[in-house]
Amino acid sequence: MTSLNQTPSGERMHITIFGRRNVGKSSLINALTGQRLAIVSDVAGTTTDPVSKAMEILPLGPVVVTDTAGIDDTGILGELRVEKTLRVLEKTDLAILVIEAGQSLSDWENRLVEMIRERHIPLVIVENKIDSRPDLFEAESVLGNGEARSPAGVWAKNEGYAYVPVSAASGKNISALKQAMISVAPQDFGVPTILGDLVGLGDLVVLVVPIDTAAPKGRLILPQVMTLRDVLDHDAYAMVVKEHQLKEALSDLNRKPKIVITDSQAFQKVAADTPHDVWMTSFSILMARYKGDLIEFVRGARALRSLKPGDRILISEGCTHHRQQDDIGTVQIPRLLAKKVGGDLQFGFSSGTEFPKDLDTYRLIIHCGGCTLNPREMRFRQRVARDAGIPMTNYGVTLAYLHGALDRALEPFPLANKVWLGES
Known about the structure:
The protein is an alpha/beta fold. The protein has 3 domains: 9-184, P-loop containing nucleotide triphosphate hydrolases (Rossmann fold), CATH 3.40.50; 204-285, Rossmann fold, CATH 3.40.50; 294-420, Rossmann fold (3-Layer(aba) Sandwich). It is 35% helix and 17% strand. It has helices at residues 25-33, 75-87, 107-118, 134-137, 151-159, 174-184, 222-233, 246-252, 267-273, 283-291, 294-301, 328-341, 375-388, 395-402, 406-409, 414-420, and strands spanning 13-19, 51-57, 61-67, 94-100, 123-128, 162-165, 204-208, 237-241, 259-262, 279-282, 312-316, 346-350, 364-367, 392-394. The strands form 3 sheets. It has a 6-stranded mixed β-sheet, sandwiched between helices. Strands 8-7-9-10 form a 4-stranded parallel β-sheet, sandwiched between helices. The protein is elongated, with a radius of gyration of 24 Å. The relative contact order is 0.10.
C-alpha cells in the first residue's frame, strides 16, 4: 500500500553499496544523504544483511540505497551473508564498489565486477578513507581532476569505470561522487510508462476499483495509484468507479472511453458491461508489461490449458502483507484453478524479496503483479524460471483466463495477443 504522495520503492532507482568489510560502506551512505541512516563501527562485519532505505539524494531524486554485508565475510554465516549481498545485484540499477585507500582489487572485487559487467549495471569505483593515505592523496589538485595514483584508481581508469577518491568521514569529494553517479546512471531510467503508448492528450480512461478488505480505509492499492498517476501524467482524463457503477457511468458519458481498466477480481462483470469496441484490461496485466515481459507471461500462461489434477504450482508474490480471508493468491486463484482442472492441485507459496531456487518441482509459476519490485528484479525472476524450464505467468493473466476474458484483456497488446492465440 502507498499514499498518493510517496514514490513507491519499485519506481525508485536502486543504488547498492558493495565492498569488503570495514571499508566504510555505511559511512559513505551517511555522507551521501547527510544523515546518520546506517550504523557505523570500527568492528568489521557490522552490517550483516542487506539493509535498504528509501531516501532522496539530490539531484538524483527518489532512490533506494542498499548497504550490504562485506563481500569478504567468512565462515558459514559469512558465506550466507555474501550470498545475500550478491543476490541484491538482481535489483541493482547503479552499483558503487567501495575500496579502502591504497588497496588493490582482490579476487572478491574482481568477481563482483565481473558479475556487474555481465548484468550491464553502471558502476562507480569509490576509494574511501583517502585522508589515511597522504602519500597517495596529499595534493588537493589530485582529487577529481582525472588523475589516479593509487592501484585502484589506476585500475578503474584503465577499465573505463568512473572513479572517485573520497573521505566519507570528512565529506571530502562527496559532491564529485554524486556527479559521477549522475553521469553513469541509466539515462532511460523511468522512461517506460504504464499507459503512455495506449492513451494520450484528452483520452478518457475508466478505472474500475472494487473497495474490499484488501484496501485499507482511506487508501487505494498500489497498482491503482500508479495507474491513476500515469493517466494524469499523459494528460488524459480519469474516471474512477466501483464495479457495480460501471454500466451506468458508461451510459452517462457523451463519448466512449479509450480503455477500461479493472481489478482482476471483477473481470467477468466488467467484461460484460464494457462495449466490445472499447479496450478492456486489468491493472495486473498492465503491471506485468510495465515491470516485466508481458509476452513471456502470456507464453507461460499457455500451461494453464494443460494443467491436470495433482500438478504442483508456485504462487509467488514480491511483497509480504497481511492475508485477508479471501486472499487472491492463497485462496481465490487456487480455488478457481482447482475448479477449472476438475480436481485438487498442489500449491507452494513464496513472498518477499527471496525467490525460490527449487523450481523443478513445479509445473507452473504464477506471480503477482510485482508492483513493489523494480523491473530488473521482475525480469530476473522471469529469467530464473525460464532457465529452469518452468512456465511463468502472473495474477492478471491467470485470472483473465480463468474468467474467460484473456482474449479481450490482451486486445490492447497485439503481439501478446498473437502469442496467446498461437500466431507467433
